[in-house]
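Long-time lurker, first post. I've been practising inverse folding by hand and with some scripts of my own, and I keep getting stuck on stretches where the structure tokens seem ambiguous. Below is the full token string for one chain I'm working on. Before anyone asks, I'm not after the true native sequence, just a reasonable design that respects the backbone. If someone could post their per-position residues I'd love to compare against what I wrote down in my notebook.
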């Protein structure tokens, strides 16, 4: 679900509810922030011990709008 926060939107999957088998994961998470000039998307996979097994480690990918 996306929520409006001031002049942007943010949202994420519910913790551990998005099952995954990609690269040894047991679940995946996705977080997104949508602003007028950029989108930040952070997708990660975790194993059954909650260890990070794929995706960006420190922050999401930033997609900037070109004018």
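-- Answer (accepted) --
I ran through it position by position. Result:
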């Amino acid at each position: 679900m996306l929520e409006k926060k001031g002049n942007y939107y943010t949202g994420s999957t519910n913790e551990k509810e998005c099952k995954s088998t990609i690269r040894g994961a047991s679940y995946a998470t996705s977080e997104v922030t949508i602003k007028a000039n950029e989108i930040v998307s952070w997708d990660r996979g975790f194993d059954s011990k909650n260890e990070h097994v794929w995706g960006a480690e420190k922050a999401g990918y930033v997609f900037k709008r070109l004018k």
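A couple of notes from the structure itself: Strands lie at 2-5, 8-12, 18-19, 27-34, 38-46, 52-55, 61-64. The mean pLDDT is 95. Happy to go over any region you disagree with.
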